[in-house]
Design a protein that fits this description.
Chain lengths: ~425, ~375
Amino acid sequence: MSTAFSAANFSTQSFPLNHTSTTTHDSPLVFAKPTSQFLRSTPKLRLSSFSKLNLSRRSGTVVAVSDVVKQKKSKSTPTLLITKEEGLELYEDMVLGRAFEDMCAQMYYRGKMFGFVHLYNGQEAVSTGFIKLLKQQDSVVSTYRDHVHALSKGVPARAVMSELFGKTTGCCRGQGGSMHMFSREHNLLGGFAFIGEGIPIATGAAFTSKYKREVLKEADCDHVTLAFFGDGTCNNGQFFECLNMASLWKLPIVFVVENNLWAIGMSHLRATSDPQIYKKGPAFGMPGIHVDGMDVLKVREVAKEAIGRARRGEGPTLVECETYRFRGHSLADPDELRDPAEKAHYAARDPITALKKYLTENNLASESELKAIDKKIDEVVEDAVEFADESPVPPRSQLLENVFADPKGFGIGSDGRYRCEDPKFTQGTAHV
Amino acid sequence: MLATASQRILGQSFQNIRPAVSVLRSYSSAAKQITVRDALNSALDEEMSADPKVFLMGEEVGEYQGAYKITKGLLEKYGPERVLDTPITEAGFTGIGVGAAYYGLKPVVEFMTFNFSMQAIDHIINSAAKSNYMSAGQISVPIVFRGPNGAAAGVGAQHSQCYASWYASCPGLKVLSPYNSEDARGLLKAAIRDPDPVVFLENELLYGESFSVSDEVLDSSFCLPIGKAKIEREGKDVTITAFSKMVGYALKAAEMLEKDGIYAEVINLRSIRPLDRSTINASVRKTNRLITVEEGFPQHGVGAEICASVVEESFAYLDAPVERIAGADVPMPYAANLERLAVPQIEDIVRAAKRACYRSVPLAATA
């Protein structure tokens, strides 16, 4: 089933965007051992009830899409991967991410933002490419570099900016901060400071989706979870533990590696025995894909397949996005160890410029339309800053709130009220 | 061998204590005996059948019937989707449990012993305990982490640590530690129903102990409140606080003290966080002397917190310095005689109580 994953075709076609020869790996989609062998053994492991639901579905559509694309290519008309609306949506989202992060840097140096702030400049293609394909009920789990994931998922820019300023109107009322963005409404599950911490959480969210379908019988629950993390995390034990369990239990999750080649000052190549992260997927029985993370359209195509796979119940996918952060690790990082030539190389592959070029060259949008979007986003970000500035700081009483969902510590009874408020508390089963 | 010997001693002593206690508290007359193991098993069973969102995960909880047979029979009854045998990946599966709890499922994560929870402690503290606060109430985590805690018999240093004080120092967690079958049933059911992360510290040596329980305890809606201690034995001369296995020792010590005319009040803490400071302080105000008993390491332990709480709130009522009985300040040795020296014994409690009662001038406690 996994071999039908046809992203292999993408690397051989030349996309109109960037002719990148930097992906020097020979065959990105060689699956070391056919995963079908592994999957066939799962019924013996008593997981048949889990996989029963989707064994009959095949991922035939994947092959079909690439075949169609191939045929179209041969007709020598340029293949458009997106419609105009989609293109503008992607452009707007990426520009929002970039403008927001630039504003964060300004605000930080003016003292309005403090603590640890990690900016996402340069990596927008990954966030936009993946998250714009999700539904509201799908969840995203991120790391400390989570502002743009929050924005892409739908958290309003005002809420994120207020949170960064530490105001009570922020998405977590100022209690989380830059590294801990949570939104129940948009299913953004954080925001984690420890690397690798979000991966098991994401796996748990995917587990819930499966549990709801199989055990709680919510038959239409096909929520997918995306876990974003970096190259350094791929050396962490929890990453491997979760690859194993996600594949073992066929969970609807996509592991997205934002490989920007650098931890703080530690190059990925110095830290990793085998730097090709996508290869770690097949070792656990899932496809491992490498994609150019500076190209939002390529990312989007791969994301469609991976998310589709998860939604159909075929299990997890590991996607390695080769990307780059234009700024330092955080605003406190002087960023002296990275080679300027490397930075220049990736700056030339700026995802926003590339998409702009694609849209204008294929007559999907005019310069003026894109400029209008730029202007609109500037206004949105300015408004967010104003809103955050004018918002009040949290009141003192907020310090002790929300430590527990049930602060009275006696448990919530079956009527939904705290048990200790029940007048019959000292009788009956509440034995003191 | 040490374990069974002490179990027999304790078992016999309970037969003697039970009637005395039941005179003071009004239990219903029909008394059935169940082991702590059966109490926990029945609590899990009932909560799983009541709420389909409750599921178990841990090593060997399914086909092996539980490393200590606590989850016996549950795999057959509820199937492998709800009783999950996990690979040996504490960090991974604890995080998965927390992630599932973010969505309102109610996982009960078993650690084979709480020593292994150290591999997952990042998820217990950072992902579970702090999430409700960090997300300003949007994401609550209704998860239970349970397993045996503290010293067993001859299992060595890496399997014998008591984690009550570590977890109890963290805001956002509730920490419970049952003693007898009634505690085990009531507190586990309360923990599973609670919408916050609960660390449930059992004790391996108590699993096989039988205790009498009333019919009320066996009712499927029985639940104990979290955050309330129980006065197991009333007295007037000295207060002894304890939790888990040490409650049994304290009760036995109280019996021995009674022969010398010292009537000890034994408090079973049940809940380490939130600590029932009001019950402890009320008792100290009555008896004016306090002994805290715990099995864990002494520094920054539960006893230290209780002592500070009493000094803060009831200093004027103390007639003697607070005595802390704790495990020895060493990693647990293996040799049986050394192990006996490293864990509090009944005689230690008796001696401490006598010291507290005969001392009228506060003297610095010598080593």
